[in-house]
Each structure stands twice: as structure tokens, then as C-alpha cells.
């Protein structure tokens, strides 16, 4: 019980630090503060349960939590800047080496009976895509970008660079070997350690950034794969949300719980 009390105080302190209001809405009865919603949403991902079970379980411990329907509606209303601020606060403010990569979280698929009834030859494959910055020294996630439709990995790097804190080195696989990324990193004084694509040598900024490339140093990038594996093993490899906002809320809660090392 004392662990939940400490976690509640920590969430209150985080929300106060980023300047989050006590209530996210101005209308209607204000029965619950925002930290109660945030705590319940975070515990839902930690416990890997539904909204109903999360409400019942926290109520059994004597905690005052919103109803499952209120939690389901609240996760769609939380603005993205709150999640970004909480992620930065839990990951730290100094990042020397950051790796970028993407992974997928499975979404709710139809049953095999339904697939057979609609005469589908293959099961419906739907997944939510996550692109992330991962601190190689601390093992924490620095910035996230979620999508519910497949796009190329290079599309999300610009957003991650704008929302994350400055870094000295950026690690990435050959999917991120683009002249545009090398140019942006050169302007921001970021050394890129990206595996070059085969038979691709053109580009002024690519040649400048590749002068300090080392195959031995590049293999530190594999730590982000371990980070994705740890995130999915501890807090689940699937999301239950249907819209982008709900999926984004679930993935951010998983990453924040990973940074706080909750109940590992």
C-alpha cells in the first residue's frame, strides 16, 4: 500500500512541475482531479488489465478512482504536450547518445471464426507503429511518435528531433540513412552514427557525417532493441485503443512506466 502512496505523490509532483492544471475541463461537475485519471491510466498499463478490472482493483485497495467509462473518455482528451513533458521529465535532461528505431504494437484483430465467415484468405493484420528515441546510457525513452497507419521510418525523425532534448550522437540503422537527416543533424551539431546503405555514396552531408563512422561504435544501437523487448514484456505488446489518441495514450503510459521502472 505504501508503494501506491509514493507513486501517487510522485505523479502529483510531476504534474505540478510541468504546469498541468488540476482539471482538464471547465464544465460539468469536478469530482476527480487529473492526477487521479493519470494514476489510473498508468496503473492500467502496468497491470495489463481492462478499465473495469483496473477500477475494481484500485477500489479494493481503498483508492478513489474514476469509473471505467470516465477513464476511457479521458484518455482521448489528454493533450499530447502533457505526455511529452512527462516523458522528458522521467527520462532526464542530459542525453549524450540516443538511438532511433521503430516497432509495432498489435491491435485487436477479429476472431478466426469471423475471418472464415467473410471468406478472407489471410487474417487481418493491423498494428500501431511506434518510433522512439532511446537513451543508450540510461536505458530510457526520450521521445515518441505513434501512428495507426504504416509509414516509412524516416518520416518521424524530424518530429522526434523537434520534441526531444539536444543530444551529441544519433544512432540508427540503414533505414535512416537519408541525406535530409544528415543535413538536419549537421546543422544541429549532432554526430550521426548510421549504418550506410549499400551502393549509396552521394550526398555532401552524408560524406561529412560518415567521416567519424565506426562499425564497432554503431553496434551500441542494438540497446534500443532490448528496450523495446523490455517494454513489451513488462507492459504488454498490444494496445486496445481504436483511435490514434487512445493508442497514443496507452503507448505513452507504457513508456513512462518503463522510465519509472514500475513493478518490474
Would you write up a description of this structure?
- The chain has twelve helices and five strands.
- It is of the alpha/beta class and 264 residues long.
- The chain has two domains: 2-77, no CATH class; 85-235, Nucleotidyltransferase, domain 5, CATH 3.30.420.
- The protein has a five-stranded mixed β-sheet with strand order 3-2-1-4-5, sandwiched between helices.
- Helix 1 (2-17) crosses helix 2 (34-47) and helix 2 (34-47) packs across helix 12 (244-260).
- The radius of gyration is 20 Å and the shape is globular.
- The mean pLDDT is 88.
Summarize the structure.
By secondary structure, the protein is α/β, with parallel strands linked by helices.
Write the layout of secondary structure elements.
Layout: H1 2-17, H2 34-47, H3 51-60, H4 68-74, H5 80-91, E1 95-106, H6 112-117, E2 127-135, E3 141-147, H7 157-163, E4 167-172, H8 179-187, E5 191-194, H9 204-209, H10 215-218, H11 223-235, H12 244-260
Parallel strand pairs: 1-4, 4-5
Antiparallel strand pairs: 1-2, 2-3
Helix pairs in contact: 1-2, 2-3, 2-12, 3-4, 5-12, 11-12
Features:
264 residues, alpha/beta, Nucleotidyltransferase, domain 5, 2 domains, five-stranded mixed β-sheet
Based on the coordinates given, report the CATH architecture of the largest domain: 2-Layer Sandwich
Instruction: Look at the helices and sheets and give the structural class.
Output: alpha/beta
Overall geometric form? globular
Helix content: 40-55%
How many helices? The count is 12
The largest sheet has its strands arranged as 3-2-1-4-5
Question: Mean of residue pLDDT?
Answer: 88
Number of extended strands:
5
The CATH topology of the largest domain is what?
Answer: Nucleotidyltransferase, domain 5
Radius of gyration: 20 Å
Q: What amount of the residues lies in strands? A: 5-15%
Instruction: Specify the oligomeric state.
Output: single chain
Which spans of ≥5 residues are poorly predicted at pLDDT below 50?
none
The CATH class of the largest domain is identified as Alpha Beta
Number of domains in the coordinates? 2
Order of SSEs: HHHHHEHEEHEHEHHHH
Tell me about the largest β-sheet.
Answer: 5 strands, mixed
| Amino- and carboxy-terminal Cα gap | 16 Å
Amino acid at each position: 500500500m505504501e508503494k501506491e502512496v509514493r507513486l501517487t505523490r510522485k505523479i502529483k509532483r510531476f504534474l505540478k512541475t510541468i504546469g498541468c492544471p488540476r482539471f482538464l475541463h471547465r464544465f460539468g461537475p469536478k469530482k476527480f482531479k487529473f492526477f487521479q485519471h493519470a494514476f489510473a491510466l498508468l496503473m492500467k498499463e502496468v497491470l495489463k488489465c481492462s478499465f473495469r478490472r483496473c477500477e475494481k482493483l484500485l477500489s479494493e485497495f481503498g483508492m478513489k478512482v474514476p469509473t471505467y467509462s470516465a477513464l476511457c473518455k479521458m484518455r482521448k482528451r489528454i493533450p499530447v504536450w502533457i505526455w511529452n513533458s512527462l516523458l522528458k521529465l522521467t527520462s532526464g535532461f542530459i542525453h549524450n547518445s540516443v538511438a532511433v528505431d521503430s516497432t509495432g504494437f498489435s491491435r485487436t484483430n477479429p476472431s478466426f471464426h469471423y475471418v472464415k465467415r467473410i471468406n478472407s484468405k489471410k487474417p487481418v493484420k493491423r498494428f500501431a507503429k511506434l518510433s522512439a528515441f532511446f537513451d543508450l546510457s540510461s536505458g530510457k525513452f526520450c521521445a515518441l511518435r505513434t501512428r495507426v497507419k504504416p509509414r516509412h521510418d524516416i518520416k518521424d525523425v524530424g518530429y522526434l528531433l523537434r520534441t526531444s532534448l539536444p543530444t551529441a550522437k544519433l544512432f540508427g540503422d540503414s533505414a535512416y540513412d537519408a541525406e535530409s537527416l544528415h543535413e538536419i543533424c549537421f546543422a544541429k551539431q549532432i554526430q550521426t552514427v548510421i549504418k550506410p546503405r549499400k551502393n549509396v555514396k552521394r550526398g555532401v552531408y552524408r560524406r561529412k557525417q560518415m567521416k567519424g563512422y565506426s562499425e564497432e561504435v554503431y553496434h551500441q544501437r542494438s540497446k534500443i532493441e532490448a528496450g523495446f523487448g523490455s517494454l513489451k514484456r513488462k507492459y504488454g505488446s498490444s494496445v486496445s485503443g481504436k483511435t490514434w489518441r487512445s493508442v497514443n495514450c496507452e503507448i505513452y503510459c507504457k513508456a513512462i512506466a518503463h522510465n519509472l521502472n514500475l513493478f518490474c
